[in-house]
Amino acid sequence: MATIDYVIVIVYLIGMIGVGVYFQRKASSSINSYFLGERGIPWWALGASGMSSNLDISGTMINTAFIFALGAAGFFIEIRGGVTLIMAFLMIFQGKWNRRALVMTLAEWMHFRFGKDKQGDFARLIAAVSILIMTVAMITYFAIGSGKFVAEFLGIPEFMGLSSQFWAATLMIVLAMIYTVASGLYGVVWTDVFQGVLIFMTIIFVCAIAFFQFDLPEVFQISVPMRDGTFMALETTRDAWTSLWPSWTLEMPEMSAYSIYNLFGIAILFYLVKVTIEGSGGTSQYMIQRFFASRSDRESGLLSLFWTTLLAFRWPFIVAIATMGVVLGSQQGVIQDPETVLPVVINQLVPIGIKGLLVAGLMAAAMSTFDSTVNAGAAYWVKDIYKQYINPDATEKQLMSHSRWSSVILVVLGLGFMLLINNINEIWGWITSSLGAGLLIPTLARWYWWRMNGYGFAAGTAAGMIAAVLQRIFLPEIPEYYAFTIATVSSLAGMIIGTYAATPTDESVLLEFYKRTRPFGFWGPIRKKIQSETLNQINKENRRDILSTFLAVPWQVVLFLTGMAVILKRWDQFTWLALILAALSIGLYFNWFRHLSSEVKVED
User: Fold this and answer.
1) Residues 588, 580: Cα–Cα separation, whole Å
2) pLDDT per position as a tens digit, 480-489
3) Does 252 map to a domain?
4) Mind listing the pLDDT tens digit for each residue in 224-266?
5) Of 106, 118, 97, which is closest to residue 513 (Cα–Cα)?
6) pTM higher than 0.90 for the full model?
7) Are residues 137 and 21 part of one domain?
8) In this structure, is residue 259 part of a structural domain?
9) Residue 160 carries which DSSP code?
10) What DSSP string runs through 492-560?
């Protein structure tokens, strides 16, 4: 980069640290302030922060790799996680269900659902430990992607036998740690808002360049990674590469790392089932923290809508980078490693000055994901392990100290595991289809099955997580759907055994949970205890939410595809997508949006 580019990046980094220092005093008054911002942060800031946190470098690099190697159809692979399709479920019902608990963490929520006796305590402890493991995995994922990206620009040398990517990731993490540790959720959200503006400017600029200055050739080459670490160039056509309608099969070489997607239709159906289970069960970590921090049912819906709408701009940006990568490859020779398309394009095709803004914007995206993950993860140690089981009488000063030190320790662990992982897709595939799958079944059943108790949740979660770790050790090369099956079946078996080995949760706890949360599902014995007038209101809300979910999921997919069609200049497909999007939007307005004000009042 030129001097002006470095100056832009340095000014941005100093600005981020300044925001963290500014909010330090406000965030230090209590852990409720540090982790939830006193539930006083406006919905639009929480939504913008969520968008920034989802738009990480690692995810952007792997998503760009799939589009570059597979064409527009690569979008559908990332239904597994990168499309963030869980937002549709959070927008309609999961966001408000979680907010109504008035808790700080998902682990604390276990007391709300299962009570404060031994089964509730056990569920809370297992939930906290499992999410801390997931947090370390996510930090590792972040570190690999950001290290790969930043090392391309800063020219950091190898040192002490460790790669330049490791030191680049360490630099990014240390800088982000400064404001994250100092100011908690206040610093996370408001730096994310600032970073979101920078990211948005970056997206618009790159999309404009790709749309007006780059035209795909009729025939060109792309590259796919092989399992032995090499790469193979393949020929494709513009029509095939830009088609937004997925085919039932792909024709990747058998030794390609992407050959696991050759049964493409089955893979997409598998990802849709996975996302439906995941979305219906809710989420954890930094995403759900925004909803715990929201002020009302209405604001949880608005922040979801804003978050999803902003995320829609990510995919045109990814397509723009992939398009520029294809054109560059047709001029200078195909880019071998699809995961490096993003930094290579920026390095070679973006002019001086703008390059600095672009690098700063993508560093902002990386730091947004990292700061949210660390802040949310630390809450589980402080609130659900240290204060609950180790030092119940801890002072606010002690809790704040643990909040900061636990953040540092989580980061050190994540950096350590970075040394054991080869590429972004390797860690992301394991997180989404194995480690995360170990949490899916008990996370889902806790909302919809009255008989499930704390021991069932704990046993199911432990069995799924252990199965995921063992799969990673002994069967690291199996396809994602096999890994998913191993984790989920193990989790299901553990949950059923744990549930029926103990008595049901106390009825008074279940009644309180059901009346406040109002979930649909198998709650027959509890519903019989509810007054008919209240039950009619719950039924009406449930019917509306179920119908709205069937509209919201395709709405989100079509919204993202519509923006991609513009950059690809596929006006034939754009017309159909725009019509479908308009119809789904009208349905959502009448069935969901105009009912946002009729929320359930929940008081402390």
Assistant:
1) 12
2) 778 888 888 9
3) no
4) 988 888 899 999 999 999 999 888 988 888 888 888 888 888 8
5) 97
6) no
7) yes
8) no
9) T
10) HHHHHHHHHTSPPPPHHHHHHHHHHH---SB-HHHHTTS-HHHHHHHHHHHHHHHHHHHHHHHHHHHHH
